[in-house]
Design a protein that fits this description.
The complex is a heterodimer of chains A (781) and B (273). Chain A is an all-alpha fold and 781 residues long. Chain A has a domain at 687-781. The radius of gyration of chain A is 34 Å and the shape is globular. With 273 residues, chain B is of the alpha/beta class. Chain B contains eleven helices and ten strands. Chain B has a five-stranded parallel sheet, with helices on both faces. A three-stranded antiparallel sheet of chain B has the order 3-5-4. The longest helix of chain B has 19 residues, at 85-103. Chain B is globular. The chains are: A mainly alpha (781), B alpha/beta (273). The A-B interface holds A 336-337, 363-364, 366, 369, 396-397, 399-401, 435, 459, 462-463, 466, 490, 497, 520-521, 524, 550-552, 555, 559, 562, 583, 586-587, 590, 613-614, 617-618, 621, 644-645, 648-649 and B 1-2, 8-9, 12-13, 16, 27-28, 33, 36-37, 39-41, 43-44, 46, 48, 52, 55-56, 58-60, 73, 156-158, 179.
Chain lengths: 781, 273
């Protein structure tokens, strides 16, 4: 019984939910019975009741209001009634809820306030503002939250009044809500509370949450007071402020202001570190990344050993380390393994080469691997001998990192060094040497490579065959033909791999013969090789491989078919999409994605609903190539879904998509999600189509939407995005004009000040004039 | 098939495969290192293309040899002597001491011992308390390579981190510029073995334990794997046995058969009675 409840509905619940569905289908006459079920003990059943009442719209509003006023049988039922009214479709007639606001029971009034706030009923703002003076604190606090959600001038003015009233139970929540309004007028009243010991801490935190440039000076002024706890409080608030400024696009001007105002206090923050808790150390590390200097690096390096601050300290070092590379290199030698691991990816200067080279002998293989990667980044080909020496490292990770670095650095000496390495007595070094010879196609190495095929180490022999396949020497193909008859399965498989990279009939015949080999891996590589040739003549042989007893050979056949554009190949792929083996299915999905055929869309849409993440990722990647609106919708659904992995991949696909529908979907996602959702970052990747999508939506944006869109354009930066912001100063919506003006001032856009001064004088909307004046002057107009 | 590089699709199938084999979950934040290690292992196994290597693991590894080699290459061996010492001291002074007094012997399992620093630290404490000869210590890890290193008693210089108890270190460890060597007498009483925490049959063969140390391991697992491991650990506990997890770990949100108890400032888990 417990198991049934855990993974689905009980039979009794299912019966009740079905009854609710029936009642809903009867419409208005069933409202009374639906409301009677609102106190059902099962959350699942209540959720169905809420959905039905919300979907009935206006028919259910008055009875629900009456129930809230007169019945209120249990807390869970009240919550359900509130939810039903919040999500009720269509407009709510003001009268029904207004009557609740006058109810003598404060709990009823508070519920009505919550409903209006969550529904963002702008017209209710003046009435909600009066409730800030309600004798019951719960009602007043609910009104504070509701006004914060609704936003706009009436709300901001009312909240400022509450903050200045210094009434304990109301001022604290009003501080938090006001800080989130993104309105520059909020800074001054919050800053006034810094002088009051009872409100100082919360006011400082609230100033941080504003993300406003105007909040830096009042926070910095707190440092005139002694004590480490003040320094920690200011650091925490400033770290919040920086994070928020990243979102609004104002991080550059905020960082410049912080450096100007806080540089003299650097020592205060460093001195406050020893007594700081984890969150405070994190904040100080972030702050030092903004205002730090060379002598701060040692402090930040000390924070690398602490898992809680490692990421922030690394980022901080990355920000300031470029200016002080020598200090970083000194820290490399003194630091722990964690320090070296964190610093190596940051170091790129040529002056660091000799010390980084020394780390190729570090006891930690991951440090040695990162040292190879760092040497690669320096671009210094004089490091090649050291990297070749690292090929013999006992850790495969290090050997491959060294190989990758050699690939990237190149140079004429590589061929000679590779041949020397091939003559080594160490097997690992010989293997890597062959990889390098393959990569660079070192044509003067035929004899040595040919000799390596006879190496008793089969992995060396395999790699030698691969290297041989990459060489242009006329002696290669006869050798490959002979190798295809060798008794060792691994060598025949390697021969098929080598042949698949070479053209010509002789190699095609060799591959076709490989399909009949006894060994599955030989057939696999032969099938792959024929697929790469994309020659229709191989189709029957490849189709025959779909019935191969080895699953990976069947998959190779599916992959090969995806390169053949014939109707029978398409049919075979469609059939494989229905396979019960997830890998066969995925290979087929990749294949049909390549065709760009309308018939592929339904199959990909179906796969995009799969339970398997990898299958969904492949389907979404296939849909990203399509212009069909259903494809964009499916990607957008994944981008708004709960799976982080799918969400990130889908957002990337939307960013890469060039259609306006994808840009509109990104705007919708950003507007539907909180500021920390990655859709906001995705939307701020500058492109003409996204600028157009944001600008179009800005024109009629309300108080909630306008700051989000203005911030997206500010984060994009660049001439086109800034131009769109200037255009939006003439938007139809006063909210848009105000938000864009505030954003332009925050990012210190060239030429913005003159235009905004004109708005302060001429804009027909009082709110816009006041918001612009506050942004420019830092105080209320 | 999926394209060059370590794409999200490739990452997803490899992550699933590794999690199925070991319980260890690699998420998007570790993808860069995960991809680099997978690529190194694939090349070592003779598969230049990652997808070919995946098919080898999935369809042509009947004895799990290649999968074990991959898990070895991926393993994180982050541990050191005297790590989270207080709970071990509490166990020796309390629960283990009590069991030895009442029953004469006790059994401890260090379930993810890496290169052996945790069971060796416990052995030092037991020796100091005069209990070493009466406590059987089984120490296991997923990686056979690190178990081999544990048996040698040779540890890197990072196996000893400040601050540490000087007296214990002087007594049981030989510390030089090159590294740390642990006392052979301690190593000899510890039974090291490779053991996958998802291998129910293998764990069952280990028998019941009075103490199971499973510290700083479950942080690498996702919830469903944690539930599976906890269920298995619960069945390996003696009736009054306890499980110890890392200081930063908590099992309370899982609602398992284990219940949390605080003893002398340290937290342990017991089977519900």
């Amino acid at each position: 019984m417990t198991e049934v409840r855990r993974f689905g509905l009980t039979d009794a619940e299912r019966t009740r939910v079905e009854h609710i569905d029936k009642l809903f289908s009867l419409g208005a006459p069933s409202v009374g019975e639906l409301i009677a079920s609102i106190s059902d003990a099962s959350w699942t059943v209540r959720r169905a009741v809420v959905g039905a009442l919300a979907a009935l719209g206006e028919e259910a509003v008055a009875p629900l209001c009456t129930w809230l006023r007169e019945v209120r049988s249990a807390e869970h039922a009240i919550a359900a009634a509130v939810d039903a009214l919040v999500s009720s479709i269509g407009p709510i007639r003001w009268g029904a809820l207004a009557s609740l606001l006058d109810d003598p029971n404060p709990a009823v009034v508070a519920d009505a306030v919550v409903i209006l706030g969550r529904r963002r009923e702008h017209d209710a703002a003046p009435r909600l503002a009066t409730l800030l003076e309600h004798p019951d604190d719960n009602v007043a606090v609910a009104a504070i939250e509701a006004l914060g959600t609704i936003g706009g001038t009436i709300a901001v003015d009312a909240l400022v009044g509450v903050v200045r009233s210094k009434r304990f139970f109301r001022t604290f929540p009003a501080l938090q809500v006001l800080a989130r309004t993104n309105d520059p007028r909020s800074v001054s009243p919050i800053a006034e509370l810094l002088a009051d010991a009872g409100f100082q801490t919360e006011a400082a935190r609230a100033l941080g949450r504003t993300g406003s440039l105007l909040a830096i000076a009042p926070l910095a002024s707190l440092l005139s007071r002694p004590g480490d706890s003040i320094a920690r409080l200011v650091a925490t608030a400033l770290a919040d402020l920086s994070a928020r400024a990243e979102w609004t696009g104002a991080h550059a001007s905020v960082a410049a202001a912080m450096r100007a105002m806080l540089a003299p206090s650097l020592g205060r923050f460093v001195a406050a570190l020893p007594g700081a808790d984890g969150a405070e150390r994190l904040a100080i590390a972030k702050l030092l990344g903004t205002i730090g200097e060379a002598n701060t690096l040692a402090v930040l390096v000390g924070l690398l050993d602490d898992p809680e601050t490692r990421a922030a300290a690394t980022e901080a070092i990355r920000r300031i380390g470029a200016l002080y590379n020598d200090a970083l290199v000194d820290a490399l030698e003194r630091g722990s393994a964690s320090t070296r691991l964190a610093l190596l990816p940051i170091i790129g200067a040529a002056s660091a080469v000799s010390r980084v080279r020394g780390l190729l002998a570090d006891e930690d293989p991951e440090v040695r691997a990162r040292a190879c990667e760092t040497l690669e980044r320096t671009g210094d080909t004089a490091t090649l001998p050291a990297l070749f020496a690292a090929l013999a490292d006992p850790s495969p990770r290090v050997g491959h990192a060294a190989t990758a670095a050699i690939f990237a650095l190149g140079a004429t000496s590589v061929s000679t060094l590779a041949l020397e390495a091939l003559g080594s007595t160490q097997a690992a070094m010989r293997r890597h040497a062959l990889r390098i010879i393959t990569f660079f196609r070192c044509h003067d190495t035929f004899d040595e490579v040919r000799a390596a095929i006879d190496d008793p180490d089969v992995r060396i022999a395999e790699l030698a065959i691969g290297a041989l396949g990459a060489l242009a020497d006329p002696g290669v193909e006869p050798v490959l033909v002979a190798l295809a008859r060798r008794p060792e399965e691994a060598l025949r498989g390697a021969t098929m791999r080598a042949a698949s990279h070479r053209g010509g009939e002789l190699m095609t015949t060799l591959l076709e013969n490989g399909l009949a080999d006894d060994a599955a891996w030989v057939r696999y590589y032969a099938c792959q090789g024929l697929g790469r040739r994309a020659q229709g003549g191989s189709l029957p042989a490849i189709v025959a491989c779909l019935a191969d007893p080895s699953p990976h050979v069947r998959i190779a056949a599916i992959e090969a078919l995806s390169r053949l554009g014939t109707p029978p190949a398409w049919q075979a792929l469609v059939s494989a999409v229905g396979s019960s083996d997830p890998d066969e299915k995925r290979a087929a999905l990749v294949g049909i994605s390549r065709r760009d055929l309308p018939e592929a869309i339904p199959l990909l849409l179906e796969a995009a609903r799969s339970d398997d993440v990898a299958t969904r990722l492949i389907a979404l990647a296939g849909l990203a190539l399509a212009t069909d609106v259903r494809a964009v919708e499916a990607i957008a659904r994944a981008a708004g879904g709960p799976s982080g992995e799918l969400r990130d991949a889908a957002l990337s696909l939307l960013v890469e998509h060039r259609d306006r529908t994808a840009a509109d979907a990104l705007v919708d996602l950003a507007l539907a999600n909180e500021a920390d959702h990655p859709a906001h970052f995705a939307l701020s990747q500058a492109s003409a189509v996204r600028i157009a999508a944001v600008a179009a939506r800005l024109d009629a944006a309300d108080d909630r939407v306008a700051p989000i869109l203005a911030a997206a354009l500010a984060r994009m930066g660049g001439a086109d995005a800034i131009a769109a912001m200037f255009d939006a100063l003439a938007a139809t919506s006063p909210s848009a004009r105000g938000a864009v003006a505030t954003a332009l001032i925050a990012i210190d856009a060239t030429g913005a000040r003159a235009l905004i001064d004109r708005l302060i004088e001429d804009d027909p909307d009082l709110d816009v004039r006041r918001a612009c004046a506050a942004a420019v002057q830092g105080n209320l107009a | 098939m999926i394209g060059p590089g370590f794409t999200p699709q490739l990452a997803s199938i490899f992550e699933h495969l590794v999690e199925e084999a070991s319980g260890i979950h690699y998420g998007p934040s570790e993808r860069e290192v995960f991809g680099a290690r997978i690529a190194a292992q694939a090349a070592e196994a003779g598969y230049p293309a990652l997808l070919d290597y995946y098919y080898r693991l999935r369809y042509d590894d009947p004895d799990g040899v290649e999968t074990r080699a991959l898990l070895e290459g991926l393993a994180v061996h982050e541990t050191y002597f005297f790590r989270e010492l207080a709970p071990l001291q509490q166990l020796v002074a309390g629960h283990l001491g009590e069991i030895v007094r009442t029953r004469g012997r006790a059994r401890v399992w260090s379930a993810a011992c890496s290169t052996g620093e945790e069971p060796l630290t416990l052995a030092m404490l037991l020796d100091q308390a005069g209990l070493l000869e009466r406590v059987e210590i089984v120490a296991s890890d997923l990686s056979a390579a690190v178990i081999q290193r544990a048996r040698t008693g040779r540890h890197g210089r990072r196996a000893l981190r400040e601050p540490y108890p000087d007296e214990l270190a002087r007594t049981y460890l030989d510390v030089t510029e090159l590294g740390v060597t642990s006392s052979a007498r301690l190593r000899d009483v510890i039974r090291f073995r490779a053991q996958n925490l998802l291998d129910d049959t293998g764990i069952e063969k280990l028998g019941l334990f009075d103490v199971i140390l499973c510290r700083n391991v479950l942080i690498y697992f996702r919830d469903d794997s944690i539930m599976r491991v906890l269920d298995r650990l619960g069945r390996s506990l003696a009736p009054d046995g306890v499980v110890a997890v890392g200081i930063a770990e908590s099992l309370l949100r899982f609602g398992t058969s284990l219940t949390c108890e605080e003893t002398g400032g340290a937290f342990f888990y017991r089977n519900r009675r």
